[in-house]
Amino acid sequence: MNKKLLHSVREYKKESFLTPVLVAFEVLMEVLIPLLMADIIDIGITGGDMGYIIKTGVLLVVMAMLALFFGAKAGQMAAIASSGYAKNLRHDIFYKIQTFSFGNIDHFSTSSLVTRLTTDITNVQMAYMFSIRLLARAPFMIILSLVMTMTINMEIAVLLLITVPVLGGVLILIAKKAHPHFIQVFDEYDVLNNTVQENVNAARVVKAYVREEKEKEKFGKISMLVFKLFTRAEKIVAWNSPVMQFTMYAVVLAMVLIGGESIIGQTMQTGELTSVIVYALQILGCLMMVTFVFVQIMIAGASTDRISEVLDEIPEMEDASDALTEVPNGEIEFEHVNFSYTGKDGNLSLKDINLHIKTGQLVGIIGGTGSAKSTLVQLIPRLYDVTEGCVRVGGADVRKYALKQLRDQVSVVLQKNVLFTGSIYENVRWGDENASDEEVQRVCKLAQADGFIQEFPNKYETKIVEGGNNVSGGQKQRLCIARALLKKPKILILDDSTSAVDTRTDALIRKAFREEIPDTTKIIIAQRISSVEDADMIIVMENGEINGIGTSEELLKTNAIYREVYESQVKGGGEDE
Fold it and tell me: How far is residue 421's CA from residue 471's CA, in Å, rounded to a whole number?
């Protein structure tokens, strides 16, 4: 078990310690019971002493009850310890993910993170429970049973001493053979979960393109691969039982042979032979148990490595001890900024960007697909960090701010609008959880969302289903804009966030911005000229570089790209009526 992961046991150390202690007492009772059974046979029954049989029988019942009590308590402690350990692990991983930048998250797929938080943690939980209970039981039982056997018959004890390491080695070899197949299974689980997630999230697209059969076929292939890998591993593990059974019967036969000769030679009694056989079965049973636990630990080993990858991931962005906690204004500066998603040696997505935006300006950004418009604005709230150069907000390098305070003052409505399960009130209050109903309604009016909300039977208490699939694209965009406005940011960024609304609504949203939040710096990425035409400054992007800056009138005279887009939309009738 990974030592780093064991730190997550924390407040459940007491239960983890008590479990093997209780198991030790349980084993002690179970080891003493065969001795009492032997005495009942050899002394009570053979001697016809009914009083001794009753007295020893009562003691036998007491020991059995004690073994039951210690076993039940050990099981209870093990369940609490393992469940608590799993709870803490989920907590640690989820909280670690919250510290990740976009760059960190790019290292893992969503389905892979879900698998690590569910299946992998369940595997580790089971392995931990088996380790502190079943694995702790084995050495106590084997050692005490061997000691007891030695006091009764040394020949049988020697037989067991030879059998235990040989059988243990064979069972461990079987487990090791199965291990690589179990590791491979979990990588395929990621693919399986990703297939399911994509299909469920895109259910409407699947149905629109009548792709149900293709999706079933794709799911069937990966599901069959997981089945084959598991079957391959289980076929190897299945050898455990016949090997154990063969060894068990062979040892019992040898013990009966040795014991029978000893009884005939009067060096051993019938009851003692019975107890020795019980001890042998207990030892062999423990070996079988150890093998089972060993397989589970190896399965958990693959899961442990996957969990450790998340916990060992170093967040790209961490607050300095003297981080700034107040953003004075919405002024933005880019100074010789280069950026690559793959680091300094990768291809540059942004090249030598120099830009100055004053507080309160309305700035439009246009450009073709892949021109790095979104990449440019994502550097402002430090969703990514620059590769070279510097981005300043309020006169200070964004890397000097505490992330929470910076992002509280830079509201971003991303291209992919996401709403969460809950009411409209609850969704908009992501911007400010303490906002009053009146404040929520005010920003919804600014975002031109109040009109359609009032048409719902439950108005602002209307429940949004997962992903916001019960509202239209335009309604979803307006709710996300309202959510961003509720933060009262100094900088508001709309990344193509009005593409699904008509031009009239788009114009009303921009008019509300100018009148209601004049001191907020507003950056609008758009494909429509009408969305940025009245901006104080328009930035034209091409291939990760700034191709032109100016007002609409200036760019029509000086920038060929802007003029071409303008003419194709305005003169060519590209705008909505």
Answer: 12
